[in-house]
Amino acid sequence: MSLEMINIVMRRQLYSYFATPVAYVFIVMFLVLAGVFSFYLGNFFEKGQADLSAFFNFHPWLYLFFMPAIAMGLWSSERQLGTIELLMTLPIGHGNVVLGKFLAAWLFAALALLLTFPIWITVSYLGDPDHGVIVAGYVGSWLMAGGFLAIGSCMSACTKNQIVAFLLTVVVSFIFMVSGVPMVLEAFFWAPQWLLDFIVGLSFLIRFDAIARGVLDVRDVLYFCMQIALWLYLTGLMLKRNQAQ
Fold it and tell me: How remote is the C-alpha of 1 from its chain's centroid?
């Protein structure tokens, strides 16, 4: 791994995001929906509690569509434009390219998330929230976004079509989101307890919910990090497979 090469790829990808108005439209839409879901659909004012629980509760569902939109063009657009052959033949290294592109998408997601700080300020003005819980929620949200983006990176490497990459990412991400939901577990009534525990442990919702409550468990952090590492590894395998064809 070369930090210099990763940085070059990351800056190139970040520039491609902001080279068109799409990035700005995405950020505005994300901020508007985050505010609407938090203060209106989340019944913030009716609850009378100075916290961001309603804000974070909607993040998995926002990310289910926004993160695939960020990631769908990571590789699909390169393949569609025919620039992936040039990119992969440069003396950069597959691992550096995969990581650089992913970090660019993750930083873009971080920017959108950081721009929600007025919501935090509003809650602080209206009451006395537990800022430690809020910080944990932001950390968990960013880690979860990384998980979605890593899945999106792999799905984008599987196809030239960005729409197909988007839909594949939504489907796979949705499976990981709801794997621990009681309705899903009921379908596995025949399964032994160890298998049920394994399925529950795969759930993005359950892992994120624990962090958003302020419980920054190392196991939950490692889970998202391992998800990111696994899907980026699979991305590299897909790119090598495509190159060999």
Answer: 23
Sort residue 2 into left (φ over 0), alpha (ψ -120 to 50) or beta.
Answer: beta
> Using CA atoms, how far apart are residues 238 and 240, in angstroms rounded to an integer?
5
Question: For the chain, which residues make up each domain, given as ranges?
Answer: 3-244
Q: What is the pLDDT of residues 202-226, one digit of tens each?
A: 888 889 988 888 888 888 999 999 9
pLDDT for 26-74, tens place per residue?
999 999 998 888 777 766 666 666 678 888 888 999 999 999 999 998 8
In which residue are the tokens 């695939």 written?
Answer: 68
Structural tokens at position 96: 């550096």
Cα distance between residue 28 and residue 104, in whole Å: 19
CA distance 176 to 170: 10
**pLDDT tens across 79-124, in order?**
777 676 666 666 677 788 899 999 999 999 999 999 999 888 888 8
